[in-house]
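Dear colleagues,

As part of the handover before I leave the project, I'm documenting each prediction I ran so the next person doesn't have to rerun anything. This entry is a single chain, and its sequence is reproduced below.
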Amino acid sequence: MEQRELHEIEARCTQEEMPRCQAACPLHLDVRAFMAKMAEGDAKGGRTVLERLMPLPSLLARICDHPCENVCLRDTLGGSLHISLLERACVVQCPTPGRTLPRPPKKKRFAVLGDGLAGLVAAWDLGRKGYPVTVFCAGTAGDALRPLCVDAPTADALQTELKTLRGHNVTFEEQTPLTPELLRRAEADGVFVDVSCAPSLCPDREQVDMLTRAIGRKHGLCFGGGATLLAENAAEGRRAATTLERHVNGASITAQRERELQRGSRLFTPLEGVTPLGAIAAPPDGYDAPAARAEAERCLRCQCLACVQHCAYLQEFKGYPKSYARQIYNNAAIVKGVHLANRMINACSLCGRCAELCPDDFSMADLCLGFRQDMVERRYMPPSAHEFALEDMEAANGPDCAAALPDPATGVCAHAFFPGCQLAAARGEQVMAVFAHLRRHLVGGVGLMLRCCGVPAHWAGREADFQKTLHCLREDWETLGRPRLVVACASCRKTLREHAPEIPADSLWEVLRDAAPVPPRDLPSCELVVHDPCAARHDAGWQKAVRALAERQGVTLREPPLTRGLTACCGYGGLVSTAHPDTARRMAEQRGAELRGEALASCIMCRDQLAASGTPARHLLDLLFPVPGTRPEAPGPGLSARRAGRAALRRRVLSELYGRAVESPAPALRVHIPDATLERMEVRHILRQDVERAVEAVERAGSRLRDKASGHFLGAFRPARVTFWVRYAPEGGEITVHDAWCHRMIVPGAGEDSGESDA
């Protein structure tokens, strides 16, 4: 990815944009940070925020015309915040300015003609940086601002700021009138003219560049102070001071100044659920400390994070999409594969919900998938990240689990049931029932395709493997006579629609609703919360059919707050469940909390993930083709059972429907694995079959070691890139496995025949 592309992607995230109040302020005061301090009752901290960007703070906090209040998002939710009154309360509660470190005097000198607000701000900014500044006044210093001092505290504040100016290299010289001759007599390296005090020196306002406050390229002479708003006059003085300083130092006049003239903001702030709160009334002498705190607490602290607040993955890394984009880009372009950034790239479920929530369609899914593909192509992505899932995909498409079968009665098929690898793994009984139902109701014959669509390879960024798997799927489809597929998995349907559009793929639920209707069953009445699979977020036909089928069975359905197009991933998608199980678990828990009730899922992995995280969930087939003993709170089968379930389904189909006897391979050794060991294996993505093969290989090769501490045998087995380790002992005529673990890498020497020895 080029930097230009990165910047285009980053620009879609508005989180770093200024809030509307800050953008509307010509000085771009950080109102959000100021409000946070005042809401804490920290007037000193609030003053620190003011002084960071507000010149003459004791004065300007009292006289500012506060354009920020006109754009406050609280306007329709109780009334705009009284920002100006809070600024005044802050400087009243904390009248002493913060300590400013003195700057060594600099050689360049500046002159300011006029002591209006723009002139004093220009002197403030330059003087505090160590530049000697002479302010020429048409009278006593500060006279130009005295009409604004409508009360004694404001007049005192003016004198306080004049005193501060004198302490920072600024001198005042009375000169009446302010004439053009002063431009020559000032003997300064740069001059600012406050046109509110020197109208005879005022050029046409249209001639002055809004950013530089200069005319053309004459950057040593700047003008400002003729604006209607006091805050804008202050900003003109500040922009002029920046131009003058850059001019005398030979720096670029305009570089990095793009935001100085910004007055609007792209920042999106979600307002759903925000409670209206009325403004706190202020007495004539202003807010006291408790009232100021109460008014500041009404601030919404405007920020976006619309995607972050609903995504466990985005919350995991304590940032937001724009910051993640930079980290991911730097990882791929500069440091080439650091652990943290790899975790960030691989922990995304690729569900696309962030783009739906974002007003500018920022998609972390597209970003992460693109970088996975790039890193795989350049060999920066460790194979271990997704290796187990890819091995499982290969097994689902291997000779023990895969099959492409025509209608068992006619030998031809106009339709083919495609349950998907996970439904075949977890619900073999229901797959058989659905297949029988479709054969009874669909005309032209119904075949069966048992295999994986290849989406795990796509999610892993391994496009060559993905295309190879799709090619094999197309061959099976061609062998069956190019039938219409009846698809039970949302990920399979989405994958086929996007990557193999020539293969017709209808959802099982639309077929069961219309072409092969399932009659209502006498089920206990219940209320279920609909959970749409994230792969079907844009599949309106899928969503409608699921609801219609459930309601036909007498179920009362409730929609969660975020549903259909805004549905969440259960934690299985994108291979996050294998690459980062903890993140996947949090995704499922967060979705369960959103549902707030027993769920109805039309994806078997959604059902199993939700149930495993503590949310009772039923699959739609539990309503249409119920199996006795299926409980909503029961977790789905483990990894080993899924692999075995696919193979068992294939054997059953071939035996019962096609008359082909397929024997289940018997292990050479009797191996017992206690439940506690199985649980650890599940977390480590180790299958029962892997352990049985490892024990058999170690025993056959005589390569076991003895663990002195436990007296058990240790052995290693390396069938491919993964190395399995087992700790076991012969007990009562069988081998009991006490522990197992693996390294998804080649461990030199492991698994080789070395004879028995003590460890």
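The chain is about 40% helix and 10% strand. The chain has a mean pLDDT of 93.

All the best with the project,
I.
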